[in-house]
Design a protein that fits this description.
two-stranded antiparallel sheet, mainly alpha, 2% strand
Amino acid sequence: MAGSKWPFFVAGFSIFFFSLSSLYYIGGLLGLYNFLEYTDDESSENSTETATDPYMAALDGEDLKSLSRGQVAEMTFELLMDVAVLVSSVFLYVGLKKKFPNFISPWLIISFLHVVVGSVWLFVIFGDDDNSFMEEAVNLFLEVFVSAMWYPIYKQYKAIRNPKEEIQPTSQCNAIREFDHHKTATAPREV
């Protein structure tokens, strides 16, 4: 089995990565990547409204885009999946630290579902959409990482759930010594 610090690394990495991923999808839903607002000197004197320049709205100079309902649904679903794994990763860390197997089991269930649903989502449903190569590579890395770490965490869960009984060497030695002292010597019988 992996070293005792390895499950803590998995929990910490999952908390960090899924926090960033959740923030990414929140930003995407809010449309933060689309809007660069500026105030025009002339319009700021007359009103406090901000204007959006459609040529500065996207990095490549495209007109201002809005999200379709499908994109909003996709980002919302991915956000919910990431928040679920984030919360279960916090439970995983606490369960490993306090040795509570009931806190580790949510991560096992949710990460398994995340890998299955994420793989179907990545390869079957949205295999040919307009995601960037980097976004697809990060999603693939995430699916491989979570699936590779599932079994070591499961082994740690089993070890915490069913600890092996250890025989104390001091009590075993004392029992043997007491047994040796109670032996009685027998003399040979004369017939």
